[in-house]
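Translate structure to sequence.
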């Protein structure tokens, strides 16, 4: 009998895809953003996808949509930006009980799955409420009140074959006692032969993840295209799978000046290292910006894992050899999404802060880059899933 998974705060579905790759059945999702829902539904056509603000979805609707599906596992990455709430008078604004975490708990209370798994930023470990309680302790306590045994650990994505330095906090709450809720390390970035002799595989590098994708320059590429090269290694073969076409491999429409700026950069250089005449200009001006953005547009080293693919990664990284940012598909490869997984919505949108400021709320969607950067890397999800499924079915 397959393990059934419901993904809350699902985004594009990276975490639940990891479970699917491990043999689980993805039965449903709850997600606020319409483009992310479109992506999820397209790639999981059998799943029940509920789009909406989870705080406004009633208990009745959650039960009506999902209780008959009997999910064994509920996943969730509730946004925990400072655990802020609209009504600052409602107790401690940094208390997770006043945050979207409470919605994750509510779904667990309603559906009583065997396992609940929450993922979040590692800094959550250090977070404290205004009354100095550790936030992670409150989270564990709330899950224990539902009858779960709770453990948490920070996992490093490169330890599971993800070619990207990405650390995530994973909280596993289970009805039954698990031998170990967390998967053993399978990969290493070290060249130390002793580690490789221990049975660890070498984690792919950035270039090993993307080198078989079609060569395109800035302003080139298509939302759907043909492969032009054969796969080079097992990682590429695995992510290609049975895919006959390539999706979302379209380069950004960089200006000539931006391409020149990228051309001046070596591996490891960022915007703050470029010659003076190529420095960024102030918005709508011919004057140079005084701000040096050290994290913006850093040229990645091909023979190392990539830095963390964040929601705004279209402006974070420069391709190791091309004078352009990564395409959405290159980001998806680094995140370990298979090539058949298609991202819907526009590739990029105007800054969310700008849309908020100008009241253009109907345009505020998660673009392809946001969806990819926000996701749990599927291969990290798969490692967590394989370890759990073995114990649940055992």
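Result:
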């Amino acid at each position: 009998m397959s393990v059934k998974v419901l993904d809350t705060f699902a985004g594009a579905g990276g975490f639940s895809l990891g479970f699917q790759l491990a043999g689980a059945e993805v039965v449903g999702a709850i997600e606020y953003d319409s483009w992310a829902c479109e992506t999820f539904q397209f790639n999981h056509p059998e799943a029940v996808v509920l789009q909406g603000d989870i705080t406004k979805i009633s208990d009745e609707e959650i039960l009506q949509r999902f209780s008959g599906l009997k999910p064994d596992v509920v996943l969730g990455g509730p946004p925990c930006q400072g655990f802020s709430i609209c009504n600052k008078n409602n107790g401690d604004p940094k208390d997770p009980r006043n945050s979207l975490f409470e919605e994750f708990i509510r779904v667990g209370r309603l559906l009583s799955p065997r396992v609940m798994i929450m993922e979040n930023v590692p800094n959550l470990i250090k977070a404290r409420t205004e009354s100095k309680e550790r936030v992670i302790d409150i989270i564990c306590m709330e899950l224990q009140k539902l009858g779960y045994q709770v453990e948490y650990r920070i996992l490093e994505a490169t330890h599971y074959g993800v070619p990207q330095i990405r650390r995530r906090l994973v909280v596993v709450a289970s009805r039954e006692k698990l031998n170990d809720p967390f998967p053993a390390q399978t990969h290493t970035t070290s060249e130390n032969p002793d580690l490789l002799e221990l049975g660890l595989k070498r984690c792919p590098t950035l270039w090993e993840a993307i080198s078989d994708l079609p060569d395109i320059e800035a302003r080139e590429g298509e939302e759907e295209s043909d492969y032009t090269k054969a796969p080079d290694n097992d990682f590429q073969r695995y992510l290609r799978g049975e895919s006959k076409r390539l999706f979302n491999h379209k380069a950004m429409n960089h200006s000539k000046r931006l391409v020149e700026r990228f051309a001046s950069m070596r591996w490891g250089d960022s915007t703050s290292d470029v010659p003076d005449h190529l420095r960024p200009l102030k918005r709508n001006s011919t004057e140079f910006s005084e701000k040096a953005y050290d994290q913006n547009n850093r040229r990645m080293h091909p023979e190392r894992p990539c830095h963390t693919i964040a929601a705004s990664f279209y402006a974070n990284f420069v391709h190791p050899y091309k004078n352009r940012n990564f395409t959405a598909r290159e980001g998806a490869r680094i995140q370990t999404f298979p090539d058949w997984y298609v991202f819907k919505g526009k590739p990029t949108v105007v800054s969310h802060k700008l849309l908020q400021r100008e009241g253009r709320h109907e345009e505020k969607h998660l673009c392809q880059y946001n969806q990819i950067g926000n996701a749990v890397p599927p291969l990290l999800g798969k490692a967590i899933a394989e370890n759990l499924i073995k114990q649940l079915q055992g």
